[in-house]
Amino acid sequence: MPDRTSPLSGILLALLAFAAFSTHDIAVKMLGGGYAVFQILFFSVLLTFPLVVMMLLRDNQQGTLIPVHPWWTALRTVSAVITGFSAFYAFSVLPLAQVYAIIFASPLIITLLSIPILGERVGLHRGGAVIVGLAGVIIVLRPADLDLGLGHMAALTAAFFGALAAVIMRKIGRDERTAVMMLYPMMANFVIMGALMPFVYRPMPLPDLGLWVMMAVLAFAASVALIHAYRRAEAVLVAPMQYSQILWAALYGWWFFDETIDLVTGLGAAVIIASGLYIVLREGRGRSNNSPVLRTRSRAETGTAPRISPMLSDEDRTVPQDRS
Length: 324
What we know:
With 324 residues, the protein is mainly α. The chain has helices at residues 7-32, 37-56, 70-93, 96-103, 106-118, 124-141, 150-172, 178-196, 206-232, 235-238, 245-257, 263-284, 314-317.
Protein backbone atom coordinates (compact mmCIF):
# COMPACT_ATOMS: atom_id res chain seq x y z
CA MET A 1 0.00 0.00 0.00
CA PRO A 2 1.20 3.59 -0.65
CA ASP A 3 2.68 5.40 2.31
CA ARG A 4 0.26 8.32 2.87
CA THR A 5 1.47 9.07 6.40
CA SER A 6 3.98 11.75 5.39
CA PRO A 7 2.44 13.97 2.69
CA LEU A 8 5.01 16.71 3.32
CA SER A 9 7.82 14.43 2.19
CA GLY A 10 5.82 13.65 -0.96
CA ILE A 11 5.36 17.34 -1.69
CA LEU A 12 9.06 18.03 -1.13
CA LEU A 13 10.01 15.14 -3.42
CA ALA A 14 7.70 16.54 -6.11
CA LEU A 15 9.27 19.98 -5.77
CA LEU A 16 12.71 18.38 -6.06
CA ALA A 17 11.60 16.42 -9.14
CA PHE A 18 10.28 19.48 -10.96
CA ALA A 19 13.41 21.43 -10.04
CA ALA A 20 15.42 18.64 -11.69
CA PHE A 21 13.16 18.74 -14.76
CA SER A 22 13.65 22.51 -14.99
CA THR A 23 17.43 22.09 -14.82
CA HIS A 24 17.10 19.47 -17.57
CA ASP A 25 15.29 22.07 -19.70
CA ILE A 26 18.12 24.55 -19.16
CA ALA A 27 20.50 22.03 -20.75
CA VAL A 28 18.09 21.66 -23.68
CA LYS A 29 18.11 25.41 -24.19
CA MET A 30 21.89 25.61 -23.95
CA LEU A 31 22.37 22.83 -26.48
CA GLY A 32 19.66 24.29 -28.71
CA GLY A 33 21.90 27.23 -29.49
CA GLY A 34 24.42 25.03 -31.29
CA TYR A 35 22.75 21.78 -32.32
CA ALA A 36 19.69 20.73 -34.31
CA VAL A 37 16.77 19.40 -32.30
CA PHE A 38 17.11 16.02 -34.03
CA GLN A 39 20.61 15.60 -32.59
CA ILE A 40 19.58 16.76 -29.10
CA LEU A 41 16.71 14.26 -29.02
CA PHE A 42 18.74 11.39 -30.44
CA PHE A 43 21.48 11.58 -27.83
CA SER A 44 18.98 12.27 -25.05
CA VAL A 45 17.27 8.96 -25.83
CA LEU A 46 20.55 7.13 -26.37
CA LEU A 47 21.89 8.12 -22.94
CA THR A 48 18.61 7.66 -21.07
CA PHE A 49 17.82 4.27 -22.55
CA PRO A 50 20.21 2.21 -20.34
CA LEU A 51 18.70 3.81 -17.22
CA VAL A 52 15.18 2.97 -18.41
CA VAL A 53 16.20 -0.63 -19.12
CA MET A 54 17.47 -0.89 -15.54
CA MET A 55 14.09 0.34 -14.34
CA LEU A 56 12.24 -2.13 -16.56
CA LEU A 57 14.23 -5.07 -15.23
CA ARG A 58 11.96 -4.83 -12.18
CA ASP A 59 8.87 -5.25 -14.36
CA ASN A 60 7.52 -8.77 -13.78
CA GLN A 61 4.41 -8.41 -15.93
CA GLN A 62 3.82 -11.35 -18.22
CA GLY A 63 3.52 -10.82 -21.93
CA THR A 64 5.33 -9.69 -25.03
CA LEU A 65 6.16 -6.31 -26.55
CA ILE A 66 3.20 -6.61 -28.92
CA PRO A 67 0.67 -3.95 -27.81
CA VAL A 68 -2.84 -4.94 -26.81
CA HIS A 69 -4.16 -1.75 -28.43
CA PRO A 70 -1.89 -1.27 -31.47
CA TRP A 71 -3.67 1.75 -32.97
CA TRP A 72 -3.91 3.66 -29.71
CA THR A 73 -0.30 2.76 -28.94
CA ALA A 74 0.76 4.00 -32.38
CA LEU A 75 -1.12 7.28 -31.91
CA ARG A 76 0.39 7.75 -28.46
CA THR A 77 3.88 7.03 -29.83
CA VAL A 78 3.48 9.54 -32.65
CA SER A 79 2.12 12.09 -30.17
CA ALA A 80 5.13 11.59 -27.89
CA VAL A 81 7.59 12.07 -30.75
CA ILE A 82 5.83 15.26 -31.86
CA THR A 83 5.73 16.51 -28.27
CA GLY A 84 9.43 15.88 -27.75
CA PHE A 85 10.49 17.62 -30.93
CA SER A 86 8.13 20.56 -30.38
CA ALA A 87 9.03 21.08 -26.71
CA PHE A 88 12.78 20.86 -27.32
CA TYR A 89 12.52 23.31 -30.22
CA ALA A 90 10.41 25.73 -28.17
CA PHE A 91 12.92 25.67 -25.31
CA SER A 92 15.69 26.36 -27.81
CA VAL A 93 14.18 29.54 -29.27
CA LEU A 94 11.76 31.03 -26.71
CA PRO A 95 12.19 32.48 -23.22
CA LEU A 96 11.74 29.76 -20.62
CA ALA A 97 8.79 31.42 -18.90
CA GLN A 98 6.83 31.65 -22.15
CA VAL A 99 7.37 27.98 -22.92
CA TYR A 100 6.27 26.87 -19.45
CA ALA A 101 3.24 29.15 -19.47
CA ILE A 102 2.02 27.69 -22.78
CA ILE A 103 2.78 24.08 -21.85
CA PHE A 104 0.90 24.61 -18.58
CA ALA A 105 -2.22 24.63 -20.78
CA SER A 106 -1.92 20.82 -21.07
CA PRO A 107 -4.31 20.10 -18.15
CA LEU A 108 -6.92 22.24 -19.89
CA ILE A 109 -6.49 20.30 -23.14
CA ILE A 110 -6.53 16.99 -21.23
CA THR A 111 -9.90 18.01 -19.80
CA LEU A 112 -11.26 18.66 -23.30
CA LEU A 113 -9.79 15.52 -24.89
CA SER A 114 -11.15 13.36 -22.08
CA ILE A 115 -14.66 13.98 -23.43
CA PRO A 116 -14.34 12.09 -26.75
CA ILE A 117 -11.58 9.65 -25.70
CA LEU A 118 -12.52 8.72 -22.13
CA GLY A 119 -16.24 9.49 -22.24
CA GLU A 120 -15.72 12.07 -19.50
CA ARG A 121 -18.45 14.59 -18.74
CA VAL A 122 -17.17 18.12 -18.25
CA GLY A 123 -19.59 20.30 -16.36
CA LEU A 124 -19.99 24.03 -16.07
CA HIS A 125 -17.22 24.52 -13.51
CA ARG A 126 -14.45 22.68 -15.28
CA GLY A 127 -15.64 23.91 -18.67
CA GLY A 128 -15.45 27.47 -17.40
CA ALA A 129 -11.96 26.83 -16.02
CA VAL A 130 -10.85 25.59 -19.45
CA ILE A 131 -12.17 28.74 -21.14
CA VAL A 132 -10.45 30.97 -18.60
CA GLY A 133 -7.21 29.03 -18.95
CA LEU A 134 -7.24 29.26 -22.74
CA ALA A 135 -7.81 32.99 -22.38
CA GLY A 136 -4.62 32.99 -20.31
CA VAL A 137 -2.79 31.35 -23.22
CA ILE A 138 -3.99 34.14 -25.50
CA ILE A 139 -2.73 36.68 -22.97
CA VAL A 140 0.72 35.06 -23.01
CA LEU A 141 0.81 34.91 -26.80
CA ARG A 142 -0.39 38.52 -27.23
CA PRO A 143 -1.21 38.01 -30.91
CA ALA A 144 -1.73 41.74 -31.44
CA ASP A 145 1.63 42.79 -29.97
CA LEU A 146 3.95 39.77 -30.02
CA ASP A 147 5.74 38.60 -33.13
CA LEU A 148 4.47 35.03 -33.10
CA GLY A 149 6.79 32.51 -34.69
CA LEU A 150 7.56 28.82 -35.01
CA GLY A 151 8.63 28.67 -31.36
CA HIS A 152 5.18 29.66 -30.13
CA MET A 153 3.54 27.20 -32.52
CA ALA A 154 5.92 24.51 -31.27
CA ALA A 155 5.02 25.19 -27.62
CA LEU A 156 1.29 25.00 -28.45
CA THR A 157 1.89 21.79 -30.40
CA ALA A 158 3.77 20.30 -27.44
CA ALA A 159 0.90 21.20 -25.10
CA PHE A 160 -1.70 19.59 -27.37
CA PHE A 161 0.12 16.37 -28.26
CA GLY A 162 1.44 15.98 -24.72
CA ALA A 163 -2.17 16.13 -23.53
CA LEU A 164 -3.25 13.66 -26.21
CA ALA A 165 -0.55 11.18 -25.18
CA ALA A 166 -1.60 11.55 -21.53
CA VAL A 167 -5.29 10.88 -22.25
CA ILE A 168 -4.45 7.83 -24.36
CA MET A 169 -2.31 6.64 -21.46
CA ARG A 170 -5.39 6.82 -19.24
CA LYS A 171 -7.41 4.89 -21.80
CA ILE A 172 -5.07 1.94 -22.39
CA GLY A 173 -2.58 2.11 -19.51
CA ARG A 174 -4.17 -0.67 -17.44
CA ASP A 175 -4.13 -3.10 -20.38
CA GLU A 176 -0.65 -2.48 -21.78
CA ARG A 177 2.62 -3.70 -20.30
CA THR A 178 4.88 -1.12 -18.70
CA ALA A 179 7.61 -2.02 -21.17
CA VAL A 180 5.32 -1.31 -24.13
CA MET A 181 4.26 2.09 -22.77
CA MET A 182 7.81 3.16 -22.03
CA LEU A 183 9.85 1.65 -24.86
CA TYR A 184 7.75 2.41 -27.93
CA PRO A 185 8.07 6.24 -27.76
CA MET A 186 11.78 6.00 -26.95
CA MET A 187 12.47 3.57 -29.79
CA ALA A 188 10.47 5.71 -32.21
CA ASN A 189 12.52 8.76 -31.25
CA PHE A 190 15.74 6.77 -31.60
CA VAL A 191 14.85 5.52 -35.11
CA ILE A 192 13.36 8.74 -36.49
CA MET A 193 15.93 11.13 -35.05
CA GLY A 194 18.71 8.71 -35.92
CA ALA A 195 17.58 8.64 -39.55
CA LEU A 196 17.59 12.45 -39.71
CA MET A 197 20.79 12.95 -37.73
CA PRO A 198 23.31 12.46 -40.58
CA PHE A 199 21.90 15.59 -42.23
CA VAL A 200 22.41 17.80 -39.17
CA TYR A 201 25.13 16.14 -37.09
CA ARG A 202 27.76 18.32 -35.48
CA PRO A 203 30.74 16.99 -33.51
CA MET A 204 30.24 17.32 -29.76
CA PRO A 205 33.04 18.59 -27.51
CA LEU A 206 33.31 17.00 -24.08
CA PRO A 207 31.55 19.84 -22.16
CA ASP A 208 28.51 19.57 -24.43
CA LEU A 209 28.46 15.80 -24.09
CA GLY A 210 28.47 16.41 -20.34
CA LEU A 211 25.24 18.40 -20.73
CA TRP A 212 23.63 15.42 -22.46
CA VAL A 213 24.72 13.11 -19.67
CA MET A 214 23.37 15.59 -17.13
CA MET A 215 20.02 15.66 -18.97
CA ALA A 216 19.75 11.86 -18.89
CA VAL A 217 20.60 11.64 -15.20
CA LEU A 218 18.24 14.49 -14.23
CA ALA A 219 15.31 13.11 -16.24
CA PHE A 220 15.74 9.67 -14.68
CA ALA A 221 16.24 10.99 -11.14
CA ALA A 222 13.23 13.33 -11.45
CA SER A 223 11.03 10.45 -12.63
CA VAL A 224 12.08 8.28 -9.69
CA ALA A 225 11.46 11.16 -7.28
CA LEU A 226 7.95 11.64 -8.70
CA ILE A 227 7.17 7.94 -8.28
CA HIS A 228 8.03 8.19 -4.59
CA ALA A 229 6.19 11.51 -4.28
CA TYR A 230 2.94 9.91 -5.47
CA ARG A 231 3.48 7.04 -3.07
CA ARG A 232 3.84 9.40 -0.12
CA ALA A 233 1.16 12.01 -0.86
CA GLU A 234 -2.19 12.20 -2.61
CA ALA A 235 -2.24 13.24 -6.26
CA VAL A 236 -4.16 16.40 -5.40
CA LEU A 237 -1.16 17.55 -3.35
CA VAL A 238 1.58 16.42 -5.75
CA ALA A 239 0.13 17.50 -9.10
CA PRO A 240 0.13 21.28 -8.43
CA MET A 241 3.86 21.18 -7.71
CA GLN A 242 4.52 21.20 -11.46
CA TYR A 243 3.72 24.91 -11.46
CA SER A 244 6.82 25.56 -9.37
CA GLN A 245 8.69 25.33 -12.65
CA ILE A 246 7.67 28.89 -13.48
CA LEU A 247 9.81 30.03 -10.53
CA TRP A 248 12.77 28.07 -11.84
CA ALA A 249 12.12 29.57 -15.27
CA ALA A 250 12.34 33.05 -13.78
CA LEU A 251 15.54 32.24 -11.88
CA TYR A 252 17.32 30.27 -14.59
CA GLY A 253 16.16 32.59 -17.37
CA TRP A 254 17.58 35.60 -15.54
CA TRP A 255 20.75 33.81 -14.44
CA PHE A 256 21.80 32.10 -17.66
CA PHE A 257 20.04 33.92 -20.49
CA ASP A 258 19.34 37.45 -19.23
CA GLU A 259 15.59 36.83 -19.55
CA THR A 260 12.88 38.53 -17.53
CA ILE A 261 9.17 37.76 -17.12
CA ASP A 262 7.25 40.76 -18.37
CA LEU A 263 3.92 41.76 -16.83
CA VAL A 264 1.74 40.33 -19.60
CA THR A 265 3.47 36.93 -19.57
CA GLY A 266 3.23 36.85 -15.78
CA LEU A 267 -0.48 37.69 -15.88
CA GLY A 268 -1.21 35.06 -18.52
CA ALA A 269 0.78 32.43 -16.63
CA ALA A 270 -1.13 33.27 -13.43
CA VAL A 271 -4.48 32.80 -15.23
CA ILE A 272 -3.39 29.47 -16.74
CA ILE A 273 -2.05 28.18 -13.43
CA ALA A 274 -5.17 29.28 -11.53
CA SER A 275 -7.47 27.50 -13.97
CA GLY A 276 -5.30 24.36 -13.88
CA LEU A 277 -5.30 24.36 -10.09
CA TYR A 278 -9.08 24.72 -10.05
CA ILE A 279 -9.46 21.65 -12.27
CA VAL A 280 -7.01 19.67 -10.12
CA LEU A 281 -8.78 20.61 -6.88
CA ARG A 282 -12.20 19.89 -8.33
CA GLU A 283 -11.10 16.46 -9.52
CA GLY A 284 -9.57 15.89 -6.09
CA ARG A 285 -12.99 16.49 -4.51
CA GLY A 286 -14.34 13.53 -6.48
CA ARG A 287 -16.32 15.45 -9.10
CA SER A 288 -14.96 13.23 -11.88
CA ASN A 289 -14.89 9.44 -12.19
CA ASN A 290 -11.91 9.43 -14.55
CA SER A 291 -9.99 12.36 -13.05
CA PRO A 292 -7.80 12.60 -16.18
CA VAL A 293 -5.69 15.52 -15.00
CA LEU A 294 -4.91 14.11 -11.57
CA ARG A 295 -4.05 10.76 -13.12
CA THR A 296 -1.52 12.33 -15.48
CA ARG A 297 1.48 11.61 -13.30
CA SER A 298 4.39 12.74 -15.46
CA ARG A 299 5.34 15.76 -17.43
CA ALA A 300 4.30 15.76 -21.07
CA GLU A 301 5.38 12.55 -22.80
CA THR A 302 8.44 13.29 -24.96
CA GLY A 303 9.84 9.81 -25.50
CA THR A 304 13.14 10.84 -23.91
CA ALA A 305 12.56 10.05 -20.23
CA PRO A 306 10.86 7.34 -18.17
CA ARG A 307 7.10 7.66 -17.98
CA ILE A 308 6.19 7.13 -14.35
CA SER A 309 2.49 6.27 -14.68
CA PRO A 310 3.09 2.65 -15.74
CA MET A 311 5.45 2.21 -12.78
CA LEU A 312 2.76 3.02 -10.21
CA SER A 313 0.66 0.27 -8.66
CA ASP A 314 -3.15 0.34 -8.65
CA GLU A 315 -3.07 1.73 -5.10
CA ASP A 316 -0.70 4.50 -6.19
CA ARG A 317 -3.03 5.40 -9.05
CA THR A 318 -6.08 5.74 -6.84
CA VAL A 319 -7.60 9.19 -6.53
CA PRO A 320 -9.73 9.50 -3.37
CA GLN A 321 -13.42 10.01 -4.18
CA ASP A 322 -15.24 12.26 -1.75
CA ARG A 323 -18.74 12.79 -3.08
CA SER A 324 -20.19 14.48 -0.04
